[in-house]
Amino acid sequence: MSSEPAIFFSDPNERQGSFLRRTFVLGGLTAVGGLALTGRLAQLQVVQAQEYTTLASANQFNFRLVPPPRGRILDRGGVVIAGNRPSFRVLVVRDETKDLDQTLDLLGRLLPDTVDRRRSIIRDVNAAPRFSPVPVKSDLTWEEFARVNLYANELPGVMADMHEARFYPFGGAFAHVIGYVAKPNDRDIEAIRERGETVPEILYNPGFRIGRQGVEKAFDTDLRGEAGGTRVEVDARGRVVAEDIGGSRPAVPGKDVILTLDSDVQNRALEVFGEESGGCVVMDIRNGDVLCMVSAPSFDPNLFVSGVPSRIYNALRDYERKPLLDKAIYGTFPPGSTFKMTSALAFLDAGIDPTERVVCTGGYRYGARTFRCWKAGGHGAMDMHNAIKNSCDTYFYHLCNRAGVDRIARVAQDLGFGHVYEIGIAGQSKGIVPSTRWKREYTEATSWDDDPTWYPGETLSVAIGQGALAVNALQLAVMTSRIANGRKAIHPRLVKSVGGVERPSGAAVPDLPFSREHLDIVRAGMAAVANDVTGTAYRASQLGLGDIQMAGKTGTAQSRDYRPGESRGPRNAQWSRRDHALFVAFAPHDAPRYAIALIIQHAPSGGSADAAPRAREIMKTVLLKDPDMRARIERPLPPEPQAPAGADEGEGGAGPGGEVTGAAAAAPPPAAPAPPTATSGPRPYLAEPPR
């Protein structure tokens, strides 16, 4: 089979035209690209040269923030109660280490206690910004610091330096009122964003601390200061090559905060509490300055600066006496008999005659129930003065419904109960002041009871400081200060100045809505409590400071309901089932200057045995620190009158010519004023001789 020949046609001119077209297109594209490149290079090197020079310089130099020294917190006398101290520490820069795990292994050999915290260290390092030093351990000893520096060449990315750490020189004495500092966490960052504010960059610095609780938290912005910065030169990998000292900016320290507290009184208060639990507040009744605000038991805030170990925090949290809880302003307790001055003022406001007598036989029958007086045998006939002095429950049972719970509640509000005070720190409890309105609103809000009616039988418990009443130590101190002041509704003041700017005085307040006569009657009863030999706090209230005496009131408040006939238990009863002990007082009672309120939670005995002696020791410290009180204590007693010459020539009397003979002649003068007796010292508030 033969195949037919194929015929191909080729046009040289057509091939040449196709080649020329491709050459023209490619050449044009090349020319356009060259022009574009030339134009872009011209733009970068001529038009935007300065801009990129600045960016290149910024890449060459980094600005690393330096936390500022935190502002100090001082007491009224300038004693530092929260300051800063030098501290050696070890830091790790993640991006400068070849192998973080290997680096931590080597550090673990030099600093064995970092092994237990390895997981938290890795978490902090991974969360830190690039090239940011992260503290691995603070408060190194000199030996540890030297050891790390000795092996620094073998530990890439590890450095040791000295910085300022927060320090609380008095430990637990100021822990609750001052608070402590800690590292910012995610919740802190989120809270700032929710307020619509920009998160300060310094908060991401691993060495920065913010305030937690108390004054540290309330004035955190003032105490922080302004962050400084170090300008450093880095290489292409971000590692530090050199420091540009001229471009660095020093940090600005935070402002100092001066409190009205007195470090000596505060330390003494925590000391006298011993192992007991409770709170104490001391106020200057002239201006409202808080000299003492202590809660016991306490804790050491220094533990929280670098991060408290979990086992220690759990122990503090789970201890039944709650050392982390501020019992001076947050914990609330029934006031017990310390509320009877409030009830007495309500009785007087209702027009009840203070000389009206009520016979106490040991109890008061109301309806189907007998309300017992604390004294089983009864007190006999009691008027208002003696009812306060002897703390007679029956007197207040008998008269309380003539005044009514709403009047008692109003007087309580006027004396300072049921309020939260602007003292500069948060965490206060408002407490409860029962009234007909309160019960109605409480019933509607909680469905606690189907009946919102207030019954007269409930007023009996309120009149003696029990029932639904709940107050804190600060409110009790305000009540005592207002009664002692007698004119002004004194407000407490805790912060004296911030950054040198004085805070308002607690004396710039309205007048009290009580008559001077009514307040005198109540103060006379308080003076008798502490200075009449039959008063409930006579033994525990003698200061031994010349003619200076206290006026006070004891209280023992039930912490639970007792079954009929059940004893309140011996001293060694279960702690959580004991009653609370309270004592309020002011001194001197003839010229009031200071007021104190002290609560012991689940006390061994009661107000007169447990609370009053401790309050007396704290008050003595307060008075001895006052120059005017010291001058009064140290002044000589007036000379005793001399018998007329020849009036008595017996032994120990005056002989002829008036000279003293016998044993008295040889006796030296006393070295110090004699302690006060039941009848010594002025008693301007006593309405009648005590019975």
CATH class call of the domain at 63-259: Alpha Beta
Rg, rounded, reads 39 Å
The CATH topology name of the domain at 63-259 reads: Penicillin-binding protein 2a (Domain 2)
Strand content: 15-25%
Tally of individual helices: 23
Largest sheet: 7 strands, mixed
Residue windows where pLDDT falls under 50 for at least 5 positions: 645-691
Q: In one word, what is the shape?
A: elongated
Portion in helices: 25-40%
Look at the structure and give the mean pLDDT: 83
Number of strands: 21
End-to-end distance, in Å? 156 Å
The CATH homologous superfamily of the domain at 63-259 = Penicillin-binding protein 2a (Domain 2)
The CATH architecture of the domain at 63-259 comes to: Alpha-Beta Complex
Structural class, by secondary structure, is alpha+beta
Keywords: Carboxypeptidase, Cell inner membrane, Cell membrane, Cell shape, Cell wall biogenesis/degradation, Hydrolase, Membrane, Peptidoglycan synthesis, Protease, Transferase, Transmembrane, Transmembrane helix
Subcellular location: Cell membrane; Membrane
Domain Penicillin-binding protein dimerisation: 66-243
Protein name: Peptidoglycan glycosyltransferase
What keyword list fits this structure?
disordered C terminus, 5-stranded antiparallel beta sheet, alpha+beta, single chain, 691 residues
Task: Tell me what you see in this structure.
With 691 residues, the protein is α+β, with helices and mostly antiparallel strands. The protein has a domain at 63-259: Penicillin-binding protein 2a (Domain 2) (Alpha-Beta Complex), CATH 3.90.1310.10. 35% of the residues lie in helices and 17% in strands. It has 23 helices and 21 strands. Strands 2, 3, 4, 5, 10, 17 and 18 form a seven-stranded mixed β-sheet that branches. Strand 17 (495-498) and strand 18 form a beta hairpin. Helix 12 packs across helix 14 (393-403), helix 12 runs antiparallel to helix 19 and helix 13 (384-390) runs parallel beside helix 19. The termini are far apart. Mean pLDDT is 83; it is low at 645-691.
